UniProtKB/TrEMBL annotation:
It holds the Pfam family GATase. Keywords: Amino-acid biosynthesis, Arginine biosynthesis, ATP-binding, Glutamine amidotransferase, Ligase, Nucleotide-binding, Pyrimidine biosynthesis. One of its GO terms (biological process) is glutamine metabolic process. This is Carbamoyl phosphate synthase small chain. The lineage of its organism: Bacteria, Pseudomonadati, Bacteroidota, Flavobacteriia, Flavobacteriales. Small subunit of the glutamine-dependent carbamoyl phosphate synthetase (CPSase). CPSase catalyzes the formation of carbamoyl phosphate from the ammonia moiety of glutamine, carbonate, and phosphate donated by ATP, constituting the first step of 2 biosynthetic pathways, one leading to arginine and/or urea and the other to pyrimidine nucleotides. The small subunit (glutamine amidotransferase) binds and cleaves glutamine to supply the large subunit with the substrate ammonia. Pathway: Amino-acid biosynthesis; L-arginine biosynthesis; carbamoyl phosphate from bicarbonate: step 1/1; Pyrimidine metabolism; UMP biosynthesis via de novo pathway; (S)-dihydroorotate from bicarbonate: step 1/3. CDD domains: GATase1_CPSase. SUPFAM superfamilies: Carbamoyl phosphate synthetase, small subunit N-terminal domain, Class I glutamine amidotransferase-like. The active site is at C246 (nucleophile), H331, E333. InterPro entries: Anth_synth/Amidotransfase, CarbamoylP_synth_ssu, CarbamoylP_synth_ssu_N, CarbP_synth_ssu_N_sf, Class_I_gatase-like, CPSase_GATase1, GATASE.
Length: 359
């Protein structure tokens, strides 16, 4: 079926539909990963977004049972140059098109993804809609201009009820703002006793669990939309070691008095170099975020900048001057991407053990 992608700025791309036949609207962003489309599709941080893959061939190794990052995808749609209908991989179980049909997701293929990416890089991320080929383009543009997408993305993807992933080691409360399963896998590999709790859990409820540490997960949307979480973090600060990833990193910044801002087109992919300012080493990282901490605002907080992105020099990590708390903007659990930074989970274990021994 013929489809087209229409941007709020008026650009139109004609292509072929895959997955569900209905259209879909969302924020159009791009991802530079050559692989990892299954993890990307199931990453809750993409809630409300239509993702353009810059790599031209997508779907060539199919979909398997092991690489999901959540049970139900929150992504709005996918844009690809060429969709592979006949994947070749020993783990393949279904095709990308079949997954999209089963999950009622919309995709479009056969468009000039390079041109689309250049538009997003020059003008910034924008609203867009995948529609039928005969849709009135002017009407869709006006619709997009007048549409305000929901701001409750975290509420949409966070767990509604607490659950456990038992272990014999240190007890970690994972506050779920849209957590990837990769975080649970990394903690489980270190034998942590994990309790996953909702994004709106109060600090008092978390402390009742008597945790050895708090993990603040990744998640979608504007960090400033999570006022309750900031109060929770402020009450926990200094009482329990805290490790934040992506949205969790931004929330720690806001809770400590820093500011955040929206990047022009964000960081999304598995090849982003990050410099650790403390040991002067570079890690290649997996990233997916549209917001960042304002580095200038860190000067008026008790946070120290520990990492920066080498592509644009934006903030990628902080630690607290007084309390056992640190965070990074990128994804040390990878999934997909390089595992250069998963040592940070070991650092979190050490932080919890040291804090426990002192108290």
């Amino acid at each position: 079926m013929k489809k087209k992608l229409i941007l709020e700025s008026g650009e139109v791309f004609h292509g072929e539909s895959f997955g569900a036949e209905q259209g879909t609207a969302g924020e159009v962003v791009f991802n530079t990963g050559m692989t990892g489309y299954q993890e990307l599709i199931s990453d809750p941080s993409y809630c409300g977004q239509i993702v353009c893959m810059t790599y031209p061939l997508i779907g060539n190794y199919g979909i398997n049972r092991d690489d999901y990052e959540s049970i139900e995808p929150a992504i709005k749609g996918l844009i690809v140059k060429e969709l592979c209908d006949f994947p070749s991989n020993f783990r393949t179980q279904i095709t990308l098109d079949e997954l999209f049909k089963k999950k009622n997701l919309s995709g479009i293929s056969g468009i000039d993804t390079r041109r689309l990416t250049r538009i997003l890089r020059s003008k910034g991320v924008t609203k867009g809609k995948i529609v039928n080929a005969d849709a009135d383009e002017n009407a869709v543009v006006e619709e997009l201009k007048s549409t305000n997408f929901p701001t409750n993305q975290v509420e949409q993807v966070s767990t509604k009820t607490p659950y456990a992933s038992p272990g014999r080691g240190l007890k970690v409360v994972l506050v779920d703002f849209g957590s990837k399963l990769g975080i649970i896998r990394e903690l489980s590999q270190r034998n942590c006793d994990i309790i996953v709790m909702s994004h709106d859990t109060k600090a008092e409820e978390i402390l009742l669990m008597n945790p050895d540490g708090i993990m603040l997960s990744n998640g979608p949307g504007d960090p400033e939309d999570n006022a309750e979480a900031l109060v929770m973090i402020q009450k926990l600060m200094g009482k329990v070691p805290i490790f934040g990833i992506c949205l969790g990193h931004q929330l720690i910044g806001l809770a400590c008095g820093a500011k955040t801002y929206k990047l022009k087109f964000g960081h999304r992919g598995g090849n982003h170099p990050v410099l650790d300012l403390e040991n002067n080493k570079v890690a290649i990282t997996s990233q997916n975020h549209g917001y960042a901490i304002d580095q200038e605002s860190l000067k008026y907080t008790d946070l120290i900048e520990t990492h920066i992105a080498l592509n644009d020099r934006t903030n990628e990590g902080v630690k607290h001057k007084i309390h056992p708390c640190f965070s990074v903007q990128y994804h040390p659990e990878a999934s997909p991407g390089p595992e250069d930074a998963n040592y940070l989970f070991d650092d979190f274990i050490t932080l919890m053990e040291d804090f426990k021994n002192k108290n």
